[in-house]
Specification:
39% of the residues lie in helices and 19% in strands. With 804 residues, it is α+β, with helices and mostly antiparallel strands. It is elongated and about 120 Å long. The termini are far apart.
Length: 804
């Protein structure tokens, strides 16, 4: 019987023309037998109370009911109960945003009817008499515009047709209607125990033919869309041994539902894991070998001609065959895939898991890992989760729905658009199926968000996904995890930022390049195992590439002393480690320190080194003061550093501002906020290398009172350090001009003489230019003097700059 959602809705039906007289429902049918029966027979418990409600439980029950019921006329017309009338209006006009779900509803109802027939046959084998097969058959007729769904389930008697299709006795459904009317929410997904009425989404008229094995008669229920009445009569066809046949007379705008190809697609989408076979009457091209007359004649002519040339008698040739395809209509099974999640994991082979993954999600590579689990207890559900073998092409857009988690309720597909409810965004790459018998069939996004069951399911899915990744990371060869990290590493880093509850677990999955492992990625646990004895921090350098991080002045002394530095080369890396902040176990926690920030000290320093650093800082105090005075507000302060080796200076940022790398990333944002940029930009601090020749040279110039040259060097030193520290130069043109000047000096040009000559010519041309401007109203520019070459100092005969 296809009418799963109404088996317990027993009530009163008003007969047309007699509005004041209610047709009494027999007492045996008014009583819900499910509670007492379920209490007596524990085997019935899995089916729930609604399983037996309104159904003939024993032959005697139906015979007693038939005795009480009055003889039925040839055809009777009834008026819907008011609630049903309103419910149909809601369904047709606002409930379902996608009317394709009507087929899922009717097939699911048919599956329930088959379940009940199979269950009753255990105690009463006569139920299956005349038709042993338990199946669903669907056929369409394009010419007549009809679609027929037939099952060999338990069927319905006349009284059950009345109670199931004319009344709503349960207050829950009435409350649902009232809530729908009050909220006007049309974005609802799934079925609401009113699946049968979804047939009117695509039908002008619906006919239900049903035969119960305990009722000698076959009955017809028929109603039109928009009508307030329906009819019930005895069916003269009597061609059903047992079960229900629903015939939909399709609307003009739903004619495509009579296409077997469309029906097959909908079955594979929604109902491919139904336990009973679903057969669709559809065409198939069958090959057939026939004689190709034209080709055979050409072959015969060629053979005759060849025989004539040789003077031999002609012989018949073998006929040339060709393949033609006949369109053969037959019942074809469309739900061959079996729900492997309902089986025990130990009974499913690795090949079966891989094949299911490829078939269900349209993948062509085997998954890297999978986990199959069943949760039992107060909440029960089954799930299979997979780590794909490659990243999807559209994974750059994390806001896009991935449709990776398919939600089933009792093996009936509900939707694949619940990703954010069942999985956090950073795990959107995990694919899988979830089947729960505890979820209500009225599944909407609002219900999912408020459901305690869904919160439990989500927590389990996240935990099992992380455990699956941890197991993959622990494998010895590590190649599979390297493949996984290349594809989905950014998602894990995003998870560290977003998922505070699982941040510690996710941090163990992180992988980065480092100064000791540039070619192979390293984990934080491996970094900790290689730390120096006195090292108390995990150091990292953020840049746009490993080469840039390696060349940064901040890491020079650390790398030289054997202190490992992590190289963060992806835009999300710095945000990831900033949110992580600390790493370690319960006994010891290590701070993650950005080497491009101020206040970084080397843990390996001894007392002698600290004393030498203090002496150097005292000695260079005049240089520090001069540089701060020359650079003004562009730097917050100038300090002597002990972490520079080859570079004369570096620009570090304050602890609580953006680093140079983060400033570069934020500047490239299309929707960046200029006010946030100004607020979050870190203050620059210049750290100088006391052992570098340039710093010593500036100190010498200051001792010689040559502050002009020292100031020029300070400007060039600052702008160069902007570049080496990862910042952008404020005026590239001015900086390029200074570099060109240095190039001229290298080429042997007398820059001082050239400047003096330009100043003299400019002073001499000023009166002439002023006079000309006053008389003609236009200004003339003085010609640019040519550079005067001078002999450069030649180091050797092979010097490339020596003039011939």
């Amino acid at each position: 019987m296809l009418l799963r959602g109404f088996s317990s809705r027993l009530g009163q039906v008003r007969a047309s023309g007699t509005p004041s007289v209610a047709r009494p429902t027999p007492a045996l049918f008014r009583r819900n037998p499910s509670s007492s029966l379920l209490g007596s027979f524990s085997v019935l418990a899995p089916f729930g109370e609604g399983f037996l409600a309104g159904r003939p439980q024993m032959p005697g029950l139906l015979r007693a009911a038939a005795t009480e019921a009055a003889p039925a006329p040839a055809e009777e017309t009834f008026t819907y109960q008011a609630e049903v009338d309103r419910l149909m209006d809601i369904i047709v006009n606002s409930l379902y945003s996608n009317r394709e779900v009507f087929l899922r509803e009717l097939v699911s109802n048919a599956s329930d009817a088959l379940d009940k027939a199979r269950f009753l046959s255990v105690t009463d084998p006569s139920v299956m008499a005349g038709r042993e097969e338990l199946e669903i058959r669907i056929s369409a007729d394009k010419d007549k515009g009809t679609l027929t769904i037939e099952d060999s389930g338990i069927g319905m008697s006349r009284e059950q047709l009345l109670s199931n299709l004319g009344t709503i006795a349960r207050s829950g459904t009435r409350k649902f209607m009232e809530a729908m009317a009050a909220k006007g929410d049309s974005n609802l997904i799934g079925q609401f125990g009113v699946g049968f009425y979804s047939a009117f989404l695509v039908s002008d008229r619906v006919r239900v033919q049903s035969k119960n094995p305990e009722d000698p008669k076959q009955w017809v229920w028929e109603a039109a869309a928009g009508s307030h009445q329906y009819t019930i009569r005895e069916d003269t066809a009597s061609d059903l041994v047992r079960g229900t046949r629903i015939t939909l007379f399709l609307k003009e705008d739903a004619a495509e539902m009579a296409d077997p190809v469309r029906i097959t697609r909908l079955i594979k989408q929604y109902s491919q894991f139904i336990a009973f076979p679903i057969k669709v009457y559809s065409p198939k091209k069958e090959p057939r070998k026939v004689v190709d007359t034209e080709a055979t004649n050409r072959k015969q002519e060629a053979a005759d001609k060849k025989a004539a040339e040789k003077g031999e008698p002609s012989k018949p040739v073998d006929p040339v065959m060709k393949t033609e395809y006949d369109e053969v209509w037959d019942w074809r099974l469309e739900n061959e895939n079996k729900p492997i999640w309902t089986r025990s994991p130990k009974d499913v082979s690795e090949t079966a898991y891989n094949d299911f993954f490829k078939a269900t999600f349209g993948e062509f590579l085997d998954p890297l890992a999978h986990v199959h689990f069943n949760v039992e207890g107060t909440i029960e559900f089954s799930a299979i989760l997979y780590l794909p073998g490659m990243a999807p092409f559209e994974q750059q857009n994390m806001m896009q729905r991935s449709k990776s988690i398919k939600l089933y309720v009792k093996r009936v597909f509900i939707s694949d658009e619940f990703d954010e409810d069942l999985m956090p965004r950073y795990l959107s790459f995990v694919k899988g199926v979830v089947d729960s018998s505890d979820l209500p069939l009225n599944v909407s996004r609002e219900i999912l968000q408020e459901s305690r069951i869904v919160r439990v399911i989500r927590k389990q899915l996240v935990r099992r996904s992380i455990e699956m990744m941890e197991e993959l990371a622990s494998k010895e060869n590590g190649e599979d995890y390297k493949t996984f990290w290349d594809a989905f590493g950014r998602n894990i880093k995003y998870g560290v930022v977003e998922d505070t509850e699982n941040r510690e677990k996710l941090s163990k999955l992180l992988r980065f390049s480092s100064s000791k492992s540039e070619d192979n990625l390293t984990s934080l646990d491996e970094y900790v195992s290689r730390m120096k004895p006195k090292q108390k921090s995990i150091y990292y350098m953020a840049a746009d590439s490993v080469q840039a991080a390696r060349a940064a002045p901040f890491v020079e002394a650390m790398v030289a002393k054997g202190i490992e530095v992590l190289y963060l080369t992806e835009p999300i890396d710095e945000a990831c480690v900033t949110n992580l902040a600390k790493y370690g176990d319960k006994d010891i926690q290590y701070d993650l320190v950005d080497v491009s920030k101020e206040g970084v000290t080397l843990d390996e320093e001894g007392e002698e080194e600290k004393a030498a650093a203090e002496a150097a800082a005292k000695e260079l105090q005049p240089v520090v003061d001069f540089l701060k005075k020359s650079l003004g507000e562009r730097v917050e302060k100038v300090a002597v550093s002990n972490r520079l080796l080859d570079s004369p200076c570096a620009l570090v940022t304050s602890k609580f501002g953006w680093s140079a790398n983060m400033e570069r990333i934020m500047r490239s944002q299309a929707m960046g906020d200029a006010r946030a940029m100004e607020y979050m930009r870190g203050r620059k601090i210049m750290e100088i290398n006391p052992k570098h020749d340039i710093i010593s040279g500036i100190k010498t110039l200051l001792q010689e009172k040559d502050e002009d040259r020292a100031r020029d060097l300070a400007e060039l030193l600052y702008e160069t350090s902007l570049i080496t520290s990862g910042f952008q130069v404020d005026s590239p043109k001015d900086y390029a001009s200074k570099v060109f000047t240095l190039m001229k000096i290298a080429l042997g040009y007398d820059i001082l003489s050239e400047v003096e000559e330009q100043q003299a010519q400019a002073a001499a041309a000023t009166p002439t230019v002023t006079s000309a401007a006053s008389s003609t109203g236009a200004a003339s520019a003085s010609p640019r003097p040519a550079a005067t070459p001078v002999d450069a100092e030649v180091v050797s005969e092979d010097d490339p700059w020596k003039k011939a």
